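Reply to dn_fold:

You asked what the input looked like. This is it:
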Amino acid sequence: MKKRILLAGIIILLVHSAVCRAGDDIRLSPGLLKPLPLITNSLSAAAASAQQSGSDRSFIDMSRPAAAKEISMKKAMFLSILVPGAGEYYAGSTFKGQVFMGVELAIWSGFIAYRVYGGWKKNDYKDYASARAELDNSGKDDEFYDWVGFYDSREEFNLLGRLYYPDRPYLPDTRYYHWQWESEKDRFRFKDLKDASRKAFRNSTFMLGLAALNRLISGIDTYRTVRAARRTVSSLTQFGDYKLKVSPRLSFKDPGVKISLSRKF
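and this is what came back:
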């Protein structure tokens, strides 16, 4: 089980790293900042012209203003723990949100599939024991079915089972405790069905571990995403009473550059 969780964690981390690299590739690159001196010079002239004409304020916005300051870290983290990927959506990283939600959907689909399959196999081995060993299935626990799969009959259990394990109970000769396999092949078939059911239920528990791991990784990624969204790379130039601010918006969903020209009153 530990090896499976470790392997699944490595796979999710590799996917997460690939997503982050993809996000970094389309974030702000040095090439996007090369035109800024030209923009600054043009807006400097605009500022001087606006000052001569008596205008109080001029504003140029090349994209929608960034909402990084409005992002709540607590809300983003809560959404990631509730539904992995929701925090990334809230922080503006749509693609990574889709990846984490897709992984979450696959995990819960696997959980449901394993539970359903395990239930089918459990019914199969109970019906098989009833038909081939004349076992009464009412009130039997997993330990009793282990005995049924290991010994050919109640008599063999009392003779050999209690010989090596004296603490085991003595099963009285009643219809409730009776079983007798027709052949060893039938008993092995019963064991195969029982083991398949147990394995499916173990795998469903493993999927719950993956769901917890997915939430942990999504929470870490959301924390990094919100911090990156709050980090503003600004180019600031002042012309007398006028102030020029160029702020690239580091949003994976909708990257852009906000350029504003304002005047102090």
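The two ends are 67 Å apart (CA to CA).
Hope that clears it up.
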